[in-house]
Design brief:
Strand order of the largest sheet: 1-2-3-6-7-8
Shape: globular
Radius of gyration: 16 Å
Oligomer: single chain
Distance between the termini: 28 Å
Largest sheet: 6 strands, antiparallel
Number of helices: 1
Number of strands: 10
């Protein structure tokens, strides 16, 4: 697993261009304290249509106890990770679910329900992960529903992975506890 450190320069608004360098994953606090966090930072690199994207997120552990639906109640916005917001950095025009994105950086969160989850794309990647209040939601740029799928094996630590489906499309797969979400991502 790769951990990426951020510089203060990343905190400036992007936009990115197809040949631009993607930012490092943001974090708050002293770099030497990262290893002490109970929810380590992680990221996945994505290649679509000859261009790059990166997803950055914190990986909480459920420690065997139900978290979604309990600590993160159904119907309430949740950051899809821990600590800093889950962020998607794209260096190309993209489509996440049904939301069209220009090159740049975005934060993601979800509103879990028993039958369907809503994934929300937010224009502010520089906010803290929680709370997701009216001020945060004012920067929402789109959302889409997804049906959660049951995992055959319990996943204690939250994980994302990328599965390519061709040169210009793939899926971000979220797995935690007994739930999986398959989030479409395409190079437009």
């Amino acid at each position: 697993m790769h951990r990426f450190l951020c510089t203060a320069a990343w905190l400036a608004a992007l936009p990115l261009h197809a040949a631009a360098q993607l930012p490092n994953c943001p974090f708050r606090g002293a770099p030497d304290a990262l290893d002490e966090r109970p929810a380590p930072l992680d990221s996945i690199a994505i290649q679509l249509g000859g261009a790059e994207a990166k997803l950055c997120y914190g990986r909480p552990s459920a420690d065997g106890a139900p978290r979604v639906g309990v600590d993160f109640p159904y119907g309430a916005p949740w950051q899809l990770g821990a600590n800093e917001p889950t962020t998607l950095h794209v260096a190309f025009p993209a489509r996440l679910g049904t939301v069209n994105l220009e090159p740049g950086s975005y934060s993601l969160y979800a509103i879990p329900e028993r039958e369907n989850w809503t994934v929300v794309v937010n224009a502010n990647p520089n906010r803290w992960g929680l709370p997701i209040d009216a001020g945060v939601r004012a920067a929402d740029i789109g959302s889409f529903p997804l049906a959660p799928e049951p995992l055959t094996q319990y996943e204690d630590r939250l994980t994302f992975r990328f599965e390519p489906l061709g040169e210009r499309e793939g899926t971000l797969v979220f797995s935690w506890e007994h739930t999986s979400l398959t989030i479409p991502l395409a190079h437009r």
